[in-house]
Design brief:
Bound molecules: copper (II) ion
Number of strands: 11
Strand order of the largest sheet: 8-5-1-2-3-11
Largest sheet: 6 strands, mixed
Strand content: 15-25%
Distance between the termini: 63 Å
Helix content: 25-40%
Structural class: alpha+beta
Radius of gyration: 26 Å
Length: about 290
């Protein structure tokens, strides 16, 4: 009897914890309400299954407890029960997976008017690159990464000269404008994650991953690395500031471009050591504008 009561208390306690808990997700600051909706659907389905199973267990412990003279019957197969369990489980799993597929399609279908921002992960810091006045990002190649060119930009690509580079600082974004986030890693797996944006994605060395979102709330948001990437992983934090267009433009005007950051002598030596044509797109290159 005590076991049955404990099981019932676990079920009731879980519901009370959910209702009374102060720990809930952060207020959303992007267009991705769909992500919250899929989480809520999964939460209710798994919550209902959890309650049903635990309460059924409590009932069975009490109902079929040991009694003098009572004997259990052995029933290894039950076609009817197996059919019902298969149908209910199948419907439950499909209900959890189907919304995710629909949301994923939207998550990677970038609107035509989205501007591009490149985010580069490196043990253990973030760097950002925004297109300059031409609106296009120049190409990049990991073979060009050096202390003078930490993001591996192609110095021969004219599109890259005016690219704005922010290393270790804040990323600013204008509110209400869709942005395509291009993700690169210089060394190991990282994952760009801002909880309020409800968006995250792995950064894979040698590849460019992407998603898009529209910031919907002004404010300062913390960037976390959501992929264990070495001993400095917990300290790999950054800041995204969402602000009105005028303030964003003022911030942008203060940033430095690739051309300003790399002196002519440094660029000449980089070109000598790696001989790449302007339009080079190797396996691990190509964050060029509009190629995806
Ligand atoms: Cu990381």
């Amino acid at each position: 009897m005590a076991v049955a009561i404990i099981l019932a208390l676990v079920a009731i306690g879980s519901v009370l914890f959910h209702v009374l808990s102060p720990w809930w997700w952060t207020p959303i600051a992007s267009n991705w309400h769909y992500i919250d909706n899929t989480l809520v659907i999964t939460f209710w389905i798994t919550g209902a299954v959890f309650l049903t199973v635990v309460l059924f267990l409590a009932f069975c412990v009490w109902r079929f407890r040991h009694q003098e003279g009572r004997r259990a019957t052995y029933e290894p197969e039950s076609g009817k029960l197996e059919l019902w369990l298969s149908i209910v489980t199948g419907v439950g799993v499909a209900a959890m997976l189907a919304p995710g597929l629909l949301v994923w399609k939207q998550f990677i279908t970038v609107p035509a008017d989205a501007s591009e921002v490149e985010i580069v992960g490196q043990q253990w810091q973030w760097a950002y690159r925004l297109p300059g006045s031409d609106g296009r990002l120049g190409t990049s190649d990991t073979r060009l990464v050096s202390s003078d060119n930490p993001l591996g930009l192609n110095p021969k690509d004219p599109n890259g000269q005016d690219d704005v580079i922010v290393e270790g600082g804040e990323l600013h974004l204008p509110i209400g404008k869709p942005v395509k986030v291009l993700l690169r890693s210089i060394d190991v797996l990282h994952d760009f994650y801002v909880p309020e944006f409800r968006a995250k994605m792995d950064m894979i060395p040698g590849a460019v991953t992407y998603f898009w979102f529209t910031p919907t709330r002004n404010g300062t948001f913390e960037v976390l690395c959501a992929e264990l990437c070495g001993v400095g992983h917990p300290h790999m934090r950054g800041t995204v500031v969402v602000e009105p267009e005028a303030e964003y433009q003022a911030w942008l005007a203060q940033q430095r471009t690739f051309a300003q950051l790399s002196s002519p002598t440094k660029r000449a030596s980089a070109e000598q050591s790696v001989n790449l044509p302007v339009a080079s797109r190797g396996n691990d290159s190509g964050t060029g504008g509009g190629s995806r």
